[in-house]
Amino acid sequence: MPLAGQIVGDGVRLVRPVGRGSHSLVYFGVARDGQPCAVKIFPAHLSSYADREYQHAHDLRHPRLVRVLHRAVVEGQPALVGTLARGEVMFQRFRQRPAARTERRAFLLTIVHLLDALSYLHGRGLVHRDIKPENIMVDEDGSAKLVDFDLSGPAFETFDTPVRMGTAAFQSPEAARGEPLGPESDLYGVGVLLGWGIHGSLPDPDEPQPLSGDPLGSLHASLTRPHRAERPNDAARVRQELLRLARLPY
Predict the structure, then answer these.
(1) Could you say which of 20, 55, 79, 225 is the most buried, measured as most Cβ atoms within 10 Å of its Cβ?
(2) Measured between alpha carbons, how far is 90 from 37 in angstroms, rounded to an integer?
(3) Is residue 96 classed exposed, middle or buried when 0-12, 13-18 and 19+ CB atoms within 10 A define those classes?
(4) Which residues take part in binding ATP (predicted)?
(5) Which of 16-20, 48-52, 71-75, 120-124 has the highest mean pLDDT?
(6) Domains of the chain in sequence order
């Protein structure tokens, strides 16, 4: 049943679907005061994901993260109302590739903002666990926000059975094995995105990416090392190293 036009929570009107989260359908909505909103609607049988996202994200306050404002119910389905991140998902925004060459300043600003978001998140003891282009909304100038926290949780959280978190193309080796995940696992995803910006494509699992003359190549290599203990685990330091190598004053 179409949900457009319905009123959710305290006067938020659903307008149209604009995307999908890991376990949800995301609607563009308009609040009573005219402010745009994002409304994530979860299937009833996945209510635990809505509960989990609200628990971990409702008190996050950072300019590079969307805010989860309050819970709601839509047609018997759990929903979360949050701020709207403007722009396009990362790979749609950077259509001319490799982005580190065609729009270097804007692309690197996106990576810087992603690292800002992760530094704050990791400082709160949380990991995102699904770093991928669909979860990074990018504006025209490269400004970015990290979205979608329904896989997020405490760093090194354990489960009764191994749980493979994330999206295969951006997943760290330990995530693919179902191991508990820490900051270095999120930063592996950043490394994959950085390599995409340098090379213009994602890595082929069967052959290494060619050497690049880009000064950021060394940072890409360190972030994507297969052994987690050999990778950086501090997003703020990775940000500093990126700016040093790129010689940009962000």
Answers:
(1) 79
(2) 20
(3) exposed
(4) 40
(5) 120-124
(6) 7-83 (3.30.200.20), 88-246 (1.10.510.10)
CA torsion sign, 161 to 162 to 168 to 170?
A: positive
pLDDT at position 132: 97
Q: In the chain, which ranges are continuous DSSP H helix?
A: 47-57, 90-93, 99-102, 104-123, 173-176, 183-199, 217-223, 235-246
pLDDT digits (tens, 9 = 90+) for 27-48: 999 999 999 999 999 999 999 9
Give ∠ CA 185-186-187 in degrees, rounded to 5: 90
Cα torsion angle, 182, 113, 99, 92, sign: positive
Q: Which residues, other chains included, contact 206 with Cβ-Cβ below 8 Å and sequence gap of 6+?
A: none
- Is residue 14 over pLDDT 60? yes
Per-residue pLDDT at 7 exceeds 80: yes
Q: Copy the structure tokens of residue 36.
A: 């745009």
Does 132 belong to an annotated binding site?
no
How far apart are the C-alpha atoms of 79 and 125, rounded to whole Å? 25
* Average pLDDT rounded to a whole number, residues 139-151: 95
What's the pLDDT at 249? Answer: 57
Residue 118, CA distances (Å) to 64, 125, 146 in order? 9, 11, 9
**Tokens found for residue 90:** 């990362």
The pLDDT of 97-125, averaged and rounded, is: 97
